[in-house]
Specification:
The protein is α/β, with parallel strands linked by helices.
């Protein structure tokens, strides 16, 4: 028994001395609890909303203030005409537009009813549904001031709900772009993350060391085959999206493929960076899967809106490449926008690609010395 207890004590000491094991045991569960607890939220908070007020009377101003002061929404813009609705949605910050008809207040007082339209961005079906439900509830509550009764027969303002880009609120309009974003970064980063570590473990690194190839040439040689295969994968995914789910590409196909090539290259260079920083294939795979999968799903805006999360998660998500590509692919595929609306996200991906490549080359040089 003493020998057995001594063996257990030894195992505890080994675990306590290995910070990686302690991180897996305690760090990852704690991080997951914090991420899921704060990031996974189906509530609306600070959702962008714009107003097109064709009446400009006291009642429309009061109802606008009531919607903004509810704490669920923040005002992004005040529109001047119907033509501004499409423009404001393409910018990506506005989730819904509230439209008050002409003479809204006069009609409500004299005729007992007035028209109000709620137009939501259907490219994010879950958010669009929540935004319209919350707004409708606020409007119905506002009706009580004029009706004096909560019954359905006393409703004076009946909101009319419309969806932009996705009138039927089909869920694959949200999931297909998100899945494309996740598949590319996970597969590309995972495949390339084991390349250099595999050379080390299999003892073939010496061949690279004595070769006349420069570090940048070796890295590009590792990346190119995966780049070509991943690009073919993108074409296959887009074809499946079109023929199986009926999800068209409303924007430029050339621009979409060019952005996909940039995102693939960024993901591959990220995998190479992980490979140069990892000592073994197991470490590289662990970092690629655990370090990228959950944050990419939760903090990219794929399923849960980033604006609903605490501000600290907004800052953390800024270093996640999927956050930017999912904006790009939704704008091109669903909204039909051009480079003018996604140039910031494109520039960020270019910078990330350059930074990952530079660090990888530098780390690779150090390992060659």
């Amino acid at each position: 028994m003493n020998r057995f207890l001594g063996f257990i004590k030894k195992e505890f000491l080994h675990i306590f001395r290995d910070y990686r094991t302690l991180f897996i045991l305690f760090g990852i569960p704690a991080a997951q609890i914090l991420i899921f607890g704060y990031a996974v939220s189906m509530d609306i908070k600070n959702a962008g909303i714009a107003f097109l007020d064709l009446s400009h009377d006291e009642i429309t101003m009061e109802l606008t203030d009531k919607i903004i002061s509810s704490g669920f929404f923040k005002k992004t813009e005040t529109l001047l005409s119907y033509s501004d609705v499409d423009k404001v949605f393409k910018k990506g910050k506005t989730k819904a537009v509230i439209i008050f008809e002409s003479n809204f207040g006069k009609k409500l007082v004299s005729e007992g009813k007035a028209s109000l339209s709620i137009i939501a961005d259907g490219s994010e079906p879950n958010t669009a549904t929540l935004v319209t439900n919350y707004t409708t509830a606020i409007v119905n509550n506002f009706n009580l001031r004029f009706a004096g009764d909560a019954s359905l027969n006393s409703v004076r303002i009946q909101p009319e709900v419309k969806m932009f880009y996705n009138p039927n609120l089909k869920s694959h309009f949200m999931f297909v772009p998100g899945v494309i974003t996740l598949i590319l970064i996970l597969i590309c980063a995972l495949m390339t993350s084991v390349t250099i570590t595999r050379e080390k473990e299999f003892g073939t690194m010496e061949v690279l060391l004595v070769s006349p190839l420069r570090p940048i040439q070796i890295i590009l040689g590792k990346v190119m085959p995966y780049f070509i295969l991943s690009f073919i994968n993108v074409i296959l995914i887009l074809a499946l999206s079109w023929f199986v789910f009926g999800l068209p590409v409303k924007g430029s196909m050339v621009l979409l493929l060019a952005e996909s090539m940039l995102y693939i290259l960024m993901s591959l260079t990220l995998g190479i960076l992980i490979s140069t920083l990892s000592g073994t294939m197991q470490q590289a795979i662990f970092i690629s899967l655990i370090g990228l999968m959950l944050p990419s799903i939760l903090l990219s805006g794929f399923i849960f809106p980033i604006e609903n999360m605490p501000k600290v998660y907004d800052y953390v998500s800024m270093i996640m490449p999927p956050r930017y590509f999912i904006v790009i692919i939704k704008n091109i595929m669903i909204k039909g926008t051009g480079l003018a609306y996604i140039w910031k996200e494109t520039l960020i991906l270019i910078i990330m690609t350059a930074v990952f490549t530079g660090i990888s080359v530098r780390k690779f040089k150090i390992r060659l010395e």
